[in-house]
Amino acid sequence: MASRLNPYISFDGNAREAMEFYRDVLGGELRLSTFGEYAPPDTPGGDKIMHAMLETPGGFTLMGADTPPGQPYHRGDNISISLSGEDAGELRGYWEGLSADGTVAVPLEKQMWGDEFGMCVDRFGITWMVNIAGSSSPAP
């Protein structure tokens, strides 16, 4: 699979509704994961969407999520760009370039879902997320 560049939208608790709406409009397959799938069952906000991905027949990919519980939601700052794929070398290169002279919010490292993931804000204030599928790098 080639690396992909996708818009990633943050929502204020209505990601499921929004992503289902986009699926109805654009068509395609919608995959949803909740915060509760990766936390204890009594976790507040466990039913909220941690990650959603819509892939359409026309080749569009749209991603989104609810703002994590306990973090503020800021309208206008609610879109990021996601780079994802399996080519670890290519994606790590993008990460190095994008995070240089920027701010790393989440270091690029193995995550609980098994992929390598990192998030940074580049020197122009744009938030980037990099996800390397099924990375075999050691866990932190």
Short description:
Residues 5-130 form the Glyoxalase/fosfomycin resistance/dioxygenase domain. It holds the Pfam family Glyoxalase. The protein has 140 residues and is α+β, with helices and mostly antiparallel strands.
Please characterize this protein's 3D structure.
This is VOC family protein. Pfam families: Glyoxalase (PF00903). InterPro entries: Glyas_Bleomycin-R_OHBP_Dase, Glyas_Fos-R_dOase_dom, PhnB-like. By secondary structure, the protein is of the alpha+beta class. It has two domains: 69 residues, 2,3-Dihydroxybiphenyl 1,2-Dioxygenase, domain 1; 55 residues, 2,3-Dihydroxybiphenyl 1,2-Dioxygenase, domain 1. Helices cover 17% and strands 39% of the residues. The protein contains two helices and eight strands. The protein has an eight-stranded mixed beta sheet with strand order 2-3-4-1-5-8-7-6, with helices on one face. Strand 6 and strand 7 form a beta hairpin. The longest helix has 12 residues. The radius of gyration is 15 Å and the shape is globular. It starts with a strand and ends in an 8-residue tail after the last strand.
Task: Please give a handful of descriptors for the protein shown.
2,3-Dihydroxybiphenyl 1,2-Dioxygenase, domain 1; PhnB-like; 8 strands; 140 residues; 2 domains; 2 helices; Glyas_Fos-R_dOase_dom; eight-stranded mixed β-sheet
The H-level CATH homologous superfamily of the largest domain, spelled out, is 2,3-Dihydroxybiphenyl 1,2-Dioxygenase, domain 1
Proportion of residues in β-strands: 35-45%
How helical, in percent, are the residues? 10-25%
Instruction: Work out the helix count.
Output: 2
Summarize the helix and strand pattern as letters: EHEEEEHEEE
CATH topology of the largest domain: 2,3-Dihydroxybiphenyl 1,2-Dioxygenase, domain 1
Strand order, largest beta sheet: 2-3-4-1-5-8-7-6
CATH uppermost class of the largest domain: Alpha Beta
Question: Structural class of the helix and strand makeup?
Answer: alpha+beta
In CATH, the architecture of the largest domain is: Roll
Structural domains: how many: 2
Low-confidence stretches: none
Arithmetic mean pLDDT? 88
Largest sheet: 8 strands, mixed
Which term fits the overall shape?
Answer: globular
Secondary structure: number of strands: 8
Domain Glyoxalase/fosfomycin resistance/dioxygenase: 5-130
Pfam family, one: Glyoxalase
Protein name: VOC family protein
Organism: Saccharothrix mutabilis subsp. mutabilis
